[in-house]
Amino acid sequence: MILFRKSIFLILLLLIGRNILLYATVNNQSSDKKTEIETIDKNLSVIRDFINFKNDSIKVLTFKTLELSQLNNYQPGIESSYYYLGRFFYLHNCYDSAMHYYKIGIEKAKINKSELIISFYVGMANIYWDTGDYSGGLEITFEIKRLFESMGIIDQKYEVFNYMGLYYEGILEYKSALQNYQKSSDIAIKRGENAYAGVVFANMGSVYNKLMKYDTSILFFKKGVALEVENKLFRNAGRTNAALATVSLNLNQIDSASFYLKEALRYNILSNDSTGLVRTYIALGKYYIKINEFKKSIDILTEAIPIATKYQNKSELVDLYDLLAQNHYKKGNYKESSQYFINYIELYQKVYDIKKINQVSALEHRLKITHQQNEINLLKIEKQKSITNYLFIIAILFFIISASSIAFGIYFKKVNRRLIDQNKKIFEQKDILEELNKQLILAEKNMNKVDELKSSFINILSHEIRTPLNGIVGFSSLMVGADISNEEKIEASNIIKKNSDDLISTIEGLVDLALIKSDQLFVFKEEFDLYSFVKRLHQDILNLRNTLYKDHLDLQYIPDNNYSSYLIKLDSHLLKKVLIKLLNNAIKFTSKGKIEYGFTILENYIRFFVTDTGIGIPEESKITIFNQFEKGKNVPKNTSGLGISLSLSKKYIELLGGKIWYESTVNKGTTFYFDIPTQ
Description:
The chain is of the alpha+beta class. It is 73% helix and 7% strand. The strands form two sheets. The protein has a five-stranded mixed β-sheet, covered by helices on one side. The chain has a two-stranded antiparallel sheet with strand order 1-3.
């Protein structure tokens, strides 16, 4: 059987070579342009049929066909040659070369108004997706959509809606992604394109996985992969199986995950899909983490990095750096973990470029405005036709009833009244449009302000991460390389610990914000003694005070004296976070005096309080003090912190079913209260 397959393969190669040699032969002495154009068309037919074999002979033939087309100034041959060169290099994962030929070809297609312009756009969209440039890909897809809308065939193009779904998914806009995927699958099924529908179903499974709707995700993935395999889309089948493995891990279905990983590797190798292989390695890394094989996870993820780097799989590199940072941290390799985390942060900011995403959103908004303006223009044309018809009727009536001046006068008054009403409506519409224009101008100003705030936040975040990292690296080097006393080593160790705690606090705060925003931060209630809990916490507060060099402050713990112990059922981890953040702020913004904290046990709830004699909170900060990334108006600009402590505290308390408020006097101090229900 194997010998038979080899024989068939050799015969096929011989036939391909024979056809290539046959059609590549160009008679340089021939002056018959028609014959040469026929040769070009035959060459293009061979290239189209055999380009997926990834044979270098196809590349040579395509270059020769391009040269012959240029000699004869045969534009269809030139455009097709550039498209097939782009396609050839894309299939070989040479994305820069592929993009180069696509861009040359699309400019020529635009000049000639060729149908191939659509194929060039789709090819470029594929590259943007594989390299993780989601904002660039979404912008290209909007251009394709606008082109199809101008041609009146957008409702036939399932590919466009699929790509829009992919890029919306890439920039985390899951609702828009699902809407576009649904439209794509509906059109594909209606047109009998079941193979493409399978790809779209798998993409929908990916979104539901990210939304943590795992059962729905598996249904769509299985539906998609069945159609992909049936239609021999092995490249897509490999990627879908890798995704199924990830979902199975999320559901703790280890055996299922192992099966899907084997299938994914088989299809990756069968289709020579480097990007798919990287995704499978990522899923395999997660599998090893799940079974606590951290070294194997590190090895497989490290093996994937050069592949992802070579083929510019930016989104996959983000996942690789993140997973490697986690693995090395669990293995105790803190230096390696820190480096991978820095790589993760830097690449994440590039892939999810907020400014580019906003530019794409603005492009989408402009396209919507243009579409609305076209509808308004059509309404105006219809209205003008109606007015013309009215005038024609008036003219006929004028000749018919010219003998009756009284009847004409009555009719004239009616028409005049109608015109007055229409003018009144026109003026009202004008006022509405002017008001809308003002709102658009205001929205544009607000958008610019948001961009400034986001840029400011990124700068602050960069400072808050790099400052402790510099401290950790600097003092670590000092301890290793310099001849210093034990006392100096202890001091350096304390500084390293403080910087590590600051860095962990910053990262945990940002992670918690993201989890809260996506409804993924859960409450885990457990029964514990409140007095023992706060008593243990008191030592942490004393250490915090000393770490902030505020050991001159009087720190007092005031519990409810009516009890000596009190059992409650709460999430102790969230309660500790709230108290630590409130006390950290109290210590940070109090230069002298005292800080008191404690609780009072009431009938159905416990009231906690934190009081300081610090700088206080001004009245103008009352509205924004609990907003994320906001600080009090009287807080010095050089004060560290992202401005998320109070925002996070409020969200933690709300998760516990409670509420928070404060009383404050500027330069005298502040008292924060929060109630947590006990039932």
